[in-house]
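Hello Y.,

Per our agreement to keep a running log of every chain we model this quarter, I'm adding this entry. I've kept the format consistent with earlier entries: sequence first, then predicted structure.
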Amino acid sequence: MGFGKILDSSPAKLASRAVDLAQGVGLLLGLAGALGGIGISWLVARGLQAGAVLAVGAGSAIAVVGGAAIVYYIRVVHDPDDYVIEELIGQLTVRQTLRTKDRFLYRYEYSRCQRVRATRNNLRLIRIGSHWSGQSISVAEVASCFPEHRLFDGEIPEEDGRIYRWIYLLGAVGRGRRITVGLKHTFEDAFVSMKPYFRESGEDRRVEKLVVRLRFKVDEAPDEAWIVTWKTTGSGMGRQEVAREKCQPSREQGSDMVLFESRSRRPRSDCAHGFVWRWPVPDAGAPETEFIDASRPGRRRRRD
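Predicted structure for the entry above:
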C-alpha cells in the first residue's frame, strides 16, 4: 500500500480529525484557564473568599467549554457543509472582438475548476455560482469541463446578481471522496460593456487554496492592473473593496498571451480575491470600425 493510500484510509482520516478536535479543545481549555486565572486573581485582590472565587472560576470554565462544545456540534457534527473546496482555480481569458474610435468589445472565456472533498455521504450536486456585469445579444455558451458530469443551469440571475449552477455527478459520492468538477463559460459584451474586474471566492464555503488567473493577448493587455480583495458587508449591500495592490503580468511561454495571477492560502470565507484593471484609451485615429475574430487569431475586418 502506497503512502498516499495510507493517508487516504479511514483510520488515518479519523486520526486526523481526532487530532484537530484535540487541538481545538486544548486551545479552548487553555483560553478558559488563562481567563479564569485572571478573573480569580482579580477577585482575590478584591478580598473575596477563596471558596467563592474557585466556584466562580469553575462555573465560568464549564460555561466556556460547554458553549464551545455546543457550537462545535452544530457547525461540524449536526449540520456540516456537504463538501470542502480543497483547491479552486478560476481563469478568465479576454480577447477583443470589436474596436471603434470610442469603444472596445471583448469575448470572455471563463473557466472554474475545483477539487472538493465530500464531508457527507450521498453527495451528488456541487454548486457553482458566477456573474458578469456586461450584456450580450447572443446566447452564452455554458458547459461542464468534464463530459462525465452534467451541468444544471439556473440561467436567471438572482437578487445578488449571480446565476447559480450545479454540477451533477451522475451518482452518489461517499464521505471523504475527492472529486474534481469544472465549468466553462464563454460570453461577449456586445450590448453593454463588462466592468473591468474579475474575482473568485468559495461562496461562503471554506477554500484551502484559491488561484485566480487573468489572461490577455500581449497587444491587448490593460494599461494597469491591481490585485484586489473584496469583503462581504453582511448587510445585504454586496461586497466592498478592502485591499488593493498593483501587479505586473508575466509572459506565457510559447504563446502571445500575458498572465496575471493571484494565489491565496486558506482565504477568509467572506472575502473574494481577484483583479481590477484599466483599459487603454481608444485611439482617435483608428478606423471607424474594426472587427476581430477572437476565435481565429490574426483575422480582422475593417469597415471605414
